[in-house]
Design goal:
The protein is of the alpha+beta class. Strand 7 and strand 8 form a beta hairpin. The radius of gyration is 36 Å and the shape is globular.
Length: 250
C-alpha cells in the first residue's frame, strides 16, 4: 500500500512537471537538435567546398604548368625570330627561317659522380657527327649528342660542352667551353673591345643553337698570348634539370 502511494506521488509529480515545464524542455531539446544538425550541415558544406577547392587548385596548377611550358616555348622562338628579323633588315637575301624545338625529359645521370651528363628521354634523333643545343627556361643549358644510340645531355661547365657565341653589342666572336665547372668564352680575337658586364648570346654559326639565345655576362677577362678568354656568369644554373628544350631544326 505504501509503495503504491509513493508510485502515485512520483507519477503525479512527473505529470505536474510535464505540464508546467514540458514546453521548455522540448524547446531546449529542439534547440540542441537544431544546433547539432546545423553544425553537421556546416561541416558538410565546408568539406564539400574544401574538396572542390582542392581539385580546382590542382586543375588550375596543371593548367598553369601547361601554359608556362607553352609561354616558355614561344619565348624561346620569339628571341631567335627577333634576332633573325634583325638580320633580315641587314641582309635582304636571307632565306626563310623556320626554327623548331622539342621538349625532352631528363631520365638519369650517365655516371653518379658526374652531374653534368644526363641521359635524355627523346624521340629526336641527333646525328652522331652533330650536336644539338639545349635550352632551359629561355637560356642555354648545354648540348645534346648521340652516345651509343642514346641522347646524352652535356650541361654547361663540362669541358665537352662548347658552342659559338657573340659578345656585346659589337658581336665579337668566341666559343663557350666548360672548365672545371666554370663557363669560359675562348678564342676571342685580341682586337675585341670586350668588357666586364658584356652579354653573351649564341651566334647560331655552328648550327647548334639559334642565334640570340642568352648565355650570361662576362665577369672576368683573361689576356692570353694569342687570344682573349672571358669567364662568364651564366643566367641560369642547371643542376638537376627535369625538362629541357632541344633544338631540333634551325
Amino acid at each position: 500500500m505504501k509503495n503504491r502511494i509513493v508510485f502515485i506521488l512520483i507519477l503525479a509529480f512527473l505529470v505536474v512537471v510535464s505540464l508546467h515545464y514540458g514546453g521548455l524542455i522540448k524547446k531546449n531539446i529542439l534547440f540542441v537538435n537544431d544546433f547539432v544538425v546545423g553544425k553537421l550541415y556546416d561541416l558538410k558544406e565546408y568539406t564539400s567546398e574544401a574538396i572542390s577547392k582542392h581539385f580546382n587548385q590542382a586543375e588550375q596548377i596543371s593548367s598553369l604548368k601547361e601554359k608556362n611550358k607553352e609561354l616558355e616555348h614561344n619565348a624561346i622562338l620569339a628571341i631567335t625570330l627577333s634576332n633573325e628579323l634583325n638580320r633580315l633588315l641587314e641582309d635582304k637575301n636571307s632565306t626563310q627561317y623556320f626554327p623548331k624545338i622539342s621538349l625532352v625529359r631528363a631520365m638519369s645521370y650517365v655516371q653518379m659522380n658526374d652531374y653534368r651528363k644526363v641521359w635524355l628521354d627523346s624521340l629526336i634523333q641527333v646525328p652522331s657527327s652533330k650536336s644539338a643545343g639545349l635550352i632551359y627556361k629561355g637560356y642555354t643549358a648545354g648540348i645534346a649528342i648521340n652516345k651509343d644510340g642514346r641522347i646524352m645531355a652535356i650541361l654547361q661547365g663540362d669541358e665537352q660542352c662548347s658552342f659559338s657565341v657573340y659578345i656585346g653589342e659589337d658581336k665579337f666572336p668566341g666559343v663557350v667551353q666548360g672548365q672545371n665547372g666554370k663557363i669560359l668564352v675562348k678564342f676571342i680575337p685580341k682586337y675585341s673591345k670586350i668588357k666586364v658586364g658584356d652579354e653573351i648570346l649564341t651566334s647560331g654559326l655552328d648550327n647548334i643553337f639559334f642565334s640570340g639565345i642568352p648565355v650570361g655576362v662576362i665577369t672576368q677577362i683573361i689576356d692570353e698570348d694569342m687570344y682573349l678568354n672571358a669567364e662568364v656568369k651564366p643566367y641560369i644554373e642547371v643542376n638537376i634539370p627535369v625538362y629541357l628544350y632541344i633544338v631540333e631544326h634551325l
